[in-house]
Amino acid sequence: MVTSLLPSTQRVLLRRLALEQSENRVPSLIAGVLRDGETAWVDSRGLVNGTPSTTDTQYRIGSITKTFVGVLVMRLRDEGRLDLADKLDDHLPGTALGNRSVGEILSQCSGLTAEPAGQWWERTQGGTPEELLATVDSSAVRPTPRHQFHYSNVGFGILGELVARIRGAAWHEVMEREILRPLEMRRTTMMPVEPHAQGLAVHPWADVVLDEPAEDAGAMAPAGQLWSTFDDMARWARFVLGDTDEVLHPDTVAEMRVPGSVDDGLEWRAGYGLGLQLLRHNKRCLAGHSGSMPGFLASVWADPAEREAVIFMANTTAGVTGALGTDLLDALAEHEPRIPEPWRPQPDVDMGLLELTGEWYWGPSPHVLRVLSNGLLDLRPGHGKRGRASRFRPNGDGTWTGLDGYYAGEILRIGRDADGTPNHLNLNTFIFTRTPYAPAAPVPGGVSGWRPARD
User: Fold this and answer.
1) Predicted local distance difference test score (pLDDT) of residue 143
2) What's the CATH class of domain 351-433?
3) What whole-number distance in Å separates Cα of residue 25 and Cα of residue 43?
4) 27-52: per-residue pLDDT in tens?
5) Reported confidence tier of residue 145, pLDDT bands at 50, 70, 90
6) From CA 344, how far away is CA 420, in angstroms rounded?
7) Do residues 19 and 299 touch, judged by C-beta distance below 8 A?
8) InterPro entries recorded for this chain (predicted)?
């Protein structure tokens, strides 16, 4: 098994994996962590066909399939073939969901029912897209507010057909051509290909197992059909982290990681972006997806801030705890914390930017503007205070555009004296000056002046 961690860290991770497999009676379980785009540790417990599973053993990944469908939809958006604000009727007319937007369906807040009509789709042979769309009548739309999270497998069946209609080919053929081949994910398939695990259910009161079926879900396949391996899921984790190999622009993947709906109220520990599940854990904001189908459980979670990810795959209907992935990330952080790279002066800083740096005031509130090593500007509250902070990239005409935070997309302009000396920052009408309420500055400058307080 691949590893680049200290033996002591490996033992901690292996023990957590072994406890999960043993105490929860999981037939086979493989798990691993990534750091900086590389598999730092991976190991397995239990057997598949009499031998330990490897990073090339296929497991069914269930709803992780939805993340691939999300990418296909976002590719269409980036090409101008659709807009996330488009109504479903613009592309798939005739359903009771026709007045809901593509973006609402993609972010799990369309109000559509969780499961399709008829028998349990995960255990039965799937039907055609036309049959699925015919079931999306008024009874399939729930009366929840449209901005409220409501997980829907049906929604991703619909999105798969949306991709097929626009591309003129089955969604999985489009996925193969536009995602799997460019990313060299050769072991991610619609149906199992040896070597693969058999899906199993473990009896709750005896150490015996039951073979689970692996039906073709048909029109519901975009919700959970795929089979994959640890190695392919590691590549997919790197994709979610931003290593997209031109399948999508990294900015689009970052957009997919932005919360669109939250499924646990005020706590906001879990939510949904654009085809990606989101999970907040300690100081991490993880993006990826969990997956379950009869006989299988899987998860892939990526932390873009730390450039780390965790994956597990198991052939059991139930039993793997949701904390396994985050426990492994916690163990990695505790037992092998990152060593910061040494600081070095940057050789190619634009020296003309130095005059912009230092303290600026929005009213009486101090802020600090810094030049980052990548040529961006960083503006945030001074003295360690919390508040609005953003990075800005140059536009080539003397203005700057906010990249993140409150000022994302907003324009920063530099106000100057007659001799060219910067005297204020104009950030979408917010004026920052070198001194609090500078008299000669635009609003809120020009006030009458400071005075002693009076009783």
Assistant:
1) 65
2) mainly beta
3) 17
4) 999 999 999 999 999 999 999 999 99
5) low
6) 31
7) no
8) AmpC-like, Beta-lactam-related, Beta-lactam/transpept-like, DUF7586
> What single letter denotes the amino acid at residue 94?
G
Structure tokens, 366 = 């101090």
| Equal CATH topology for 26-335 and 351-433 | no
Query: What is the mean pLDDT of the segment spanning 231-239?
Result: 98
pTM of the entire structure? Answer: 0.90
250 neighbors 240 (Cβ within 8 angstroms): no
Instruction: Tell whether the torsion through CA atoms of 154, 155, 156 and 159 is positive or negative.
Output: positive
Burial (0-12, 13-18, 19+ Cβ within 10 Å), 80: exposed
Q: Give percent of the chain above pLDDT 90.
A: 81
**Which amino acid would we find at residue 243?**
D
Question: Do 290 and 311 contact (CB within 8 A), yes or no?
Answer: no
- pLDDT single digits (tens) 43-87: 999 999 999 999 999 999 999 999 999 999 999 999 999 999 999
What's the CATH superfamily of 26-335? DD-peptidase/beta-lactamase superfamily (3.40.710.10)
pLDDT in tens, 101-135: 999 999 999 999 998 888 888 888 889 999 999 99
What does the domain layout of the chain look like in residue ranges?
26-335, 351-433
| Site of tokens 């009548």 | 137
User: Taking CA 380 as the corner, what is the angle to CA 375 and CA 381, rounded to the nearest 5 degrees?
Assistant: 155
**Burial of 192: CB neighbours in 10 Å, binned 0-12, 13-18, 19+:** middle
Position 356 scores a pLDDT of 96
Q: How far apart are CA 249 and CA 240, in angstroms?
A: 11
331, 324 Cβ separation under 8 angstroms: no
**Six-digit token string for 419:** 């001799």
Cβ atoms < 10 Å from Cβ of 71: 26
* 310 CB burial (10 A radius; 0-12, 13-18, 19+): buried
Instruction: Give the distance from CA 313 to its chain's centroid.
Output: 19
